[in-house]
Amino acid sequence: MEALRLISINDIGVKSHFFVPSYQRGYRWDDQQVNNLLNDLYEFMGERVGDQFYCLQPVVVRKRGENNFEVIDGQQRLTTISILLQCLGFPTFSISYETRPKSQHMLASLKDYVQEEAKDVDHHYFKEAYLTIKKWIEEKQVDEMTIISELYITLGKHTKVIWYEIKEDMDVHELFMRLNIGKIPLTNAELIKASLLQPLFNSERQELALQWEEMEQTLQDDSFWYFIEPKVTYTNRIEFLFDIIVGKTSADIDPFHTFYKLTQHEDFWEKTRLLFARLREWYAHRETYHLIGYLLHAKTNAYSIPNLITLYDSDFIDSKEKFIDTLSQYVRATLPKDFKVINDYRYGTDNRAIQNVLLFFNILEEMRSARDTHRFPFDHYAKEHWSLEHIHAQKTEELNNRKQWEKWLRDALKLIEPLVQSKLTENIKEMLDRDFERVEFENMVQQVENELKEENKHLFLEGEDIHSVGNLALLDRRVNTILGNHYYPIKFEALKQHERAGGYVPPATRKAFWKYYSKQPDHFEYWASTDQQDYVDGIVETLNTYFKEGTHAHV
């Protein structure tokens, strides 16, 4: 498809002719759609300042000759504009239809047809649109005598369409189908780029295009992107910056909302560059990177880049130090008032709170390093869907298919073969060589546990200990699946293999499995209650140290 342009209704002019091929349906706008257009134009008339213009959605055409175009998309908009111009009493461009030749004459002379009863579908919708527009104009003329001339000037000089002119050899039927099922979606970014470039000279165009490309390349770097936007996806990520500038919200559902708001903002591109520079500055500064990244990824849904921009620009923030201190306070508000409460958190009932605690704990552990290159990977956290994993698990209820049962039994063999001298290992091997059902699997699990308890009673956590924070860590879901529901020594070995293969293990998770927090790490055979408590004490101490008044100890 050729590069798009923005052209005014005046640019289309009365000499243009549009041909609608047979594969397109006829005109179908109802009174609501017509009134929406009129009200939008009227609102724009009252608010327009400077060079602002009202923009219609795309018109896709293929040139057939001088001022002669085949319409591939946009027939409804062009027809409505033609009817509006007639209602205002001014000449308009012409439209013809491959399979409905009478409709051309009818559309060109609607004033003569509106008094007649509709003879076909085209006649009905043409007539209804005409009468709707006439009624709207008459109602406005009661208070505004000049409405016709004002609306005509607004429509001709200050209304533009997004104009695509495709190559002559393109398969227009296929293109039409793809456009109308959304396979070729236009984006705000493409439209805004065309709007920004169009009025510039060549050298200015090249400079802006290079700046645009630099921004887009940076935003396409996932380590940068997921620091600022963990939830929403964009084809052109620069569009995120544009959405911020125009103040787009979830209530603004029009796909071209940002583009339409462009003309209301002076120095739009300069604002974009300044916004991008600020985000890059936050990314480069190690503490703002980690604090903002946490706030955007924490399970609170309370923070976003737009409201952090608002904070930064407020009178309340008079220095970078004040901004960092405020971010730190925001982070503190997402965590328990008394960190000792972490001892009472339980998996299942407090998952959101636990995940926030472990996320920020992992961030602080990454920040311990004196090297600036050590940064928490928010892109991994977002894309790999990190979740809570039991360091030691002995529940098999979540294993529900033969493949999972076999993996559990094979892992159990690795643990018990060096310890247990019995027929149990032979029974497991024999069972793995044939079909078996869940009941038989559960019976074998019980036998394994009985044997292991005789060898080492510490291997088994009892009661709520299994679901306490001391037995939980953050890992991505894929690794969680690899580790499975198994005992600590089996998970520890699997985690080491994952890391040796180049996999990423979050810093605090790695330290927990390697018993970095344990005061007496003299074995790796089981995850004891003392290991759990030492781990939680390490979390509490680290959080307390960071949030001591006036100090950011790990930065």
Description of the structure:
This protein has 3 domains: 182 residues, no CATH class; 83 residues, no CATH class; 157 residues, no CATH class. It starts with a strand and ends in a 9-residue tail after the last helix. A hairpin with a 2-residue loop joins strand 3 and strand 4. 54% of the residues lie in helices and 9% in strands. With 555 residues, it is an alpha/beta fold. The protein contains 26 helices and 8 strands. The protein is elongated, with a radius of gyration of 33 Å. Strands 1-6-3-4-2-5 form a 6-stranded mixed β-sheet, with helices on both faces. A two-stranded antiparallel sheet has the order 7-8.
Beta-strand portion reads: 5-15%
As for the number of domains, it is 3
**Weakly predicted, low-confidence segments:** none
Main sheet summary:
6 strands, mixed
Helix content: 40-55%
Rg on CA atoms, Å: 33 Å
Spatial shape:
elongated
> What structural class do helix, strand and pairing data support?
alpha/beta
- Secondary structure tally, helices: 26
Mean pLDDT: 86
Distance between the termini: 51 Å
> What is the total tally of β strands?
8
Order of strands, main sheet, comes to 1-6-3-4-2-5
Short key terms for the protein model shown above:
alpha/beta; 54% helix; elongated; 8 strands; 6-stranded mixed β-sheet; 555 residues; 26 helices; two-stranded antiparallel sheet
Describe how the helices and strands are arranged.
Blueprint: E1 5-8, H1 9-12, E2 17-20, H2 31-47, E3 54-65, E4 68-73, H3 75-88, E5 94-97, H4 101-108, H5 110-113, H6 121-141, H7 147-157, E6 159-166, H8 172-180, H9 188-197, H10 202-220, H11 222-228, H12 238-246, H13 257-261, H14 268-284, H15 286-297, H16 305-313, H17 320-333, H18 351-367, H19 378-383, E7 386-390, H20 402-416, H21 424-432, H22 438-455, E8 472-476, H23 477-483, H24 488-500, H25 507-513, H26 529-546
Parallel strand pairs: 2-4, 2-5, 3-6
Antiparallel strand pairs: 1-6, 3-4, 7-8
